[in-house]
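Field log, afternoon session.

UNIT: design team B
ACTIVITY: writing a sequence onto a fixed backbone
BACKBONE:
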């Protein structure tokens, strides 16, 4: 449920989130959370719009959550990046003027970066072919963007299927390949705060890091500088491909990346099952002192909870504080929360990202 775009109430809304997190962490004697604010406007690097036709004329539209019948027509979106707002009208006008681009176009998706790149995906209820390629390439050159076309069972990539982001963490620039359709943090400024906090909380270590749910290596890259070695795991094939590219792009050589789910990692570390995907990886060579998790909204399953509770330190980033609190009911039996943080990734909504550092009692 959204709170609405009310920049004048930002501090009040953030205070409400802070109190909610404090209340959730109170049973675990957590210290007061460190607060990382978002820019008030133009913070969202991704945006997706349906097209709503009135009198045959398309308009960008958004809908209230759970109600796809009543469209809210928009021509600018103040929470979206400046680059998205710059592109919205010229792109739509070009599609109106050219039937090859505009016919049966039903959705437009924008992916941009702090470093200025823009990738736009045009989605159609009809097949698209080489004639579309020519028109779309001309539009891409006119607007200085990259374009992908999607129709049922078809994806046409004109330049490339990703943007290249650059994030600054503790004085160092990290480059990330962010693939169209893959998961990336939508608020780039707050993502940099998250990475910096995680790096500081990790400290400097002479042992190794186990990372579950590593995605495209968002946290893996900077955290690799604070440990002897890293074993990073991720199930999504596309995320693994991006993570491998990002490790190579940034010359990170102390990370071993394997495509395993958290449940499979647990089985492997328990010696309960051998995996062909671990061929050539000797788990006995690792001396894990810290485990880093950034799980989906459902949190950690019981087997993964049991696994992470073995390690001296747990760094836990959560997109759902309620499931974090539920997991802490188990983890607090062996660990104490020594740091906590609130990252306001999603201003003007009830959603919030948070982090905790747990250390063995």
């Amino acid at each position: 449920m959204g709170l609405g775009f009310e920049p004048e109430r930002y501090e009040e809304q953030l205070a409400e989130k802070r109190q909610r997190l404090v209340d959730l962490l109170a049973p675990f004697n957590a210290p007061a959370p460190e607060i990382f604010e978002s820019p008030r406007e133009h913070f969202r690097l991704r945006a997706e719009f349906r097209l709503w036709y009135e009198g045959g004329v398309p308009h960008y539209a958004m809908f209230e959550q759970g109600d796809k019948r009543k469209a809210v027509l928009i021509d600018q979106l103040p929470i979206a990046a400046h680059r998205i707002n710059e592109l919205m009208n010229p792109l739509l006008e070009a599609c109106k003027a050219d039937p090859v681009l505009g016919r049966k176009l039903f959705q437009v998706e924008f992916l941009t970066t702090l470093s200025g790149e823009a990738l736009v995906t045009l989605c159609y209820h009809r097949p698209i072919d080489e004639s579309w390629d020519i028109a779309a390439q001309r539009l891409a050159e006119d607007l200085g963007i990259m374009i992908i076309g999607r129709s049922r069972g078809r994806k046409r990539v004109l330049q490339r299927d990703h943007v290249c982001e650059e994030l600054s963490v503790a004085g160092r620039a990290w480059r990330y390949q962010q693939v169209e359709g893959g998961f990336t943090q939508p608020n780039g400024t707050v993502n940099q705060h998250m990475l910096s906090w995680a790096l500081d909380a990790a400290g400097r270590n002479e042992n190794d890091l186990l990372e579950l749910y590593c995605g495209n290596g968002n946290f893996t890259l900077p955290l690799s500088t604070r440990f002897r070695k890293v074993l990073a795991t991720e199930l999504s094939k596309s995320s693994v491909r991006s993570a491998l590219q990002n490790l190579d792009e940034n010359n990170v050589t102390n990370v071993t990346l394997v495509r395993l789910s958290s449940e499979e990692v647990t089985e492997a570390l328990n010696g309960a099952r051998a995996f062909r995907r671990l061929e050539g990886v000797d788990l006995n060579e690792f001396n894990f002192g810290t485990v880093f998790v950034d799980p989906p909204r459902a949190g950690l399953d019981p087997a993964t909870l049991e696994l992470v509770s073995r390690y001296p330190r747990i760094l836990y980033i959560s997109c759902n504080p309620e499931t974090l609190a539920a997991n802490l009911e188990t983890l607090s039996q062996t660990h104490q929360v020594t740091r906590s943080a609130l990252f306001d990734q999603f201003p003007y909504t009830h959603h919030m990202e948070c982090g905790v550092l747990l250390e063995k009692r």
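LOG NOTE: The radius of gyration is 22 Å.
NEXT ACTIVITY: expression trials, pending approval
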